[in-house]
Amino acid sequence: MQAGARVLRLENRLRLLASHDPLTQLLNRRTFFELIEKEWKRSSRIGYPLSCAMIDVDFFKRVNDSYGHLAGDEVLRSVSRRLQRCCRQTDCVCRYGGEEFCVLLPDTGEQGAVLWAERCRSAVAEEPIETAETRIGVTVSLGVAQRRDDTNSPEELLDLADRALLEAKRLGRDRVVALGTLEDEG
Q1: Which of 23, 80, 100, 110 keeps 20 to 30 A from 31, CA to CA?
Q2: Would 168 be classed as within a structural domain?
Q3: Which GO molecular function, any one, fits this protein according to its record (predicted)?
Q4: Is position 9 within any domain?
């Protein structure tokens, strides 16, 4: 019986390692793509809104250069915890790569996604992140997009959120930009 329990624990550990980022314990990119495909199909079938947010830690390279990679790792872990605290149980948070995160917001229109993104932005910026050596003030930029009738795939939704993120960074960082805002201005 002990051997069977040990094998089960090892299998569970392997599943966790295959689906989660080891540093932040968030979903990894591969698992996120599996989930966005499922939510996309569900959204198509039921007709509920689906939004996505791309999040980038502002000037993260400076954190690594100034304080070292261990401090940078702590910043990523802390940002990930703050993002998770802003999320509902149905939201999917992943470490998309490097200092970038992505959140899928089922049953959320663009207006709700923008409100959520502002809460996240504030949650990250409101208190410096404690590391072993110092306290580091960190901000994030967020790009938000909602699935529309002419959004053809999950990848296109991610691309739209990424375009909004790039605009947030271009406008000075530490802000939220929604794709609808970009379309209204352009």
Answers
A1: 110
A2: yes
A3: diguanylate cyclase activity
A4: no
- 99 classed as catalytic: yes
Give 86's contacts (C-beta < 8 A, 6+ positions apart): 116, 119, 120, 123
CA distance 169 to 175: 8
**pLDDT tens for the 186 residues of the chain, in order:** 687 777 667 666 666 567 899 999 999 999 999 999 999 999 999 999 999 999 999 999 999 999 999 999 999 999 999 999 999 999 999 999 999 999 999 999 999 999 999 999 999 999 999 998 899 999 999 999 999 989 999 999 999 999 999 999 999 999 999 987 666 555
**Among residues 39, 74, 99, 110, which one is catalytic?**
99
In angstroms, the CA 33 to CA 40 distance is: 10
Pairing, β 176-178 against β 140-146: parallel
Number of domains forming the structure of the chain: 1
Q: Do the domain assignments include residue 35?
A: yes
